[in-house]
Amino acid sequence: MLVLTLGMGLGRFLYTPMLPVMMAEGAFSFSQLSWIASGNYAGYLAGSLLFSFGAFHQPSRLRPFLLVSALASGLLILAMAWLPPFILVLLIRFLAGVASAGMLIFGSTLIMQHTRHPFVLAALFSGVGIGIALGNEYVLAGLHFAFSSQTLWQGAGALSGMMLIALTLLMPSKKHAIAPMPLAKTEQQIMSWWLLAILYGLAGFGYIIVATYLPLMAKDAGSPLLTAHLWTLVGLSIVPGCFGWLWAAKRWGLCLA
Hints:
globular, mainly alpha, Putative permease, transmembrane, membrane, MFS_4, MFS_trans_sf, about 260 residues
């Protein structure tokens, strides 16, 4: 859970509540902020493709790669506090996307080396929602005290550092790894990789606009309280969703779910 709370919830989606703050300060235009968001998603795509190569998945390399990705994610969050020029911010968010992909891939692979219990995997991905909710409430608390975006990014960097320490301490031991279970010759893949990529791409296309601009889109919702906490509700809804879809897969089958 902690892996994706940092890597996705903060490293990738803290930008969602921060976008209106940065736009209100006038440091960047809406167009520039949109390009910055796109740069992060491009980095996530690049990291996903890069880290799919087998050289990154040797058992002895997973822990160091995960920790490097976590460290990079925290440092890149902190780097946003410098308010560098647009091109550098674009690069920072691109690299943050690469780091987020690394945390997702190396974290999930490492966990599956130690357990195949579906409940644990659901808990892992629920970390995305926890991070989204935590990040949004953190930004709202900072705005209550009139913190600038620079201060908010600095605090988020410090929060990421604490998560990195906790992640390092809680990292599973190598001696607890379970033996790999190769597929039987008669066992076939449930879904081909290209179909899985299409489904994942369609899911991303469906949610990414809302996931980037929801605080701006909801500013005229009529309820200031709902507008402020709507992104938090999205994050919290992810948590039961992870376990709910797990139940649905058991109940009706993976493909139907």
